[in-house]
Automatic annotation (TrEMBL):
Keywords: Hydrolase. InterPro entries: Aliph_Amidase/BUP (IPR050345), C-N_Hydrolase (IPR003010), C-N_Hydrolase_sf (IPR036526). The lineage of its organism: Eukaryota, Viridiplantae, Streptophyta, Embryophyta, Tracheophyta. It comes from the Eukaryota. Residues 5-84 form the CN hydrolase domain. This is CN hydrolase domain-containing protein. GO terms for molecular function: beta-ureidopropionase activity. The keyword Hydrolase applies. One of its GO terms (biological process) is beta-alanine biosynthetic process via 3-ureidopropionate. It holds the Pfam family CN_hydrolase.
Length: 125
């Protein structure tokens, strides 16, 4: 869970809150997990360690893995804009072209353009 949230924050230039419970949950009625194993009533152990990731790859310290906790953090939303400007992805984006391509792809009669590499063609005898 640590890397996915942090990577999402970096790639999308926004803050991500990664939350998880602590402890073990047991249900009153047994259930199956669909994995072929016998029924059980315990849902399993939750690992905790909630934290916030920032778009600049920084993270807050994680909460406990064993006790309930509350994490409060300041988030400078201007950092999102600063990093978007620094990386410049929107500067080279072609949103008008993406919209045109998408409108073509969703049509029911769409046929993709397939370009074959001539060097990969098999020779026939």
């Amino acid at each position: 869970m640590v890397f996915q949230a942090r990577n999402a924050a970096i790639a999308n230039s926004y803050f991500v809150g990664s939350i998880n419970r602590v402890g073990t949950e047991v249900f009153p009625n047994p259930f199956t997990s669909g994995d072929g194993k016998p029924q059980h009533a315990d849902f399993g152990h939750f690992y905790g360690s909630s934290y916030f990731s920032a778009p600049d790859a920084s993270c807050t310290p994680s909460l406990s893995r064993y006790r309930d906790g509350l994490l409060i953090s300041d988030m400078d939303l201007n950092l999102c804009r600063q990093l978007k400007d620094k990386w410049g992805f929107r500067m080279t984006a072609r949103y008008d072209m993406y919209a045109d391509m998408l409108s073509q792809y969703v049509k029911p009669d769409f046929e993709p353009q397939v370009i074959a590499d001539p060097l990969l063609k098999k020779k026939t005898a």
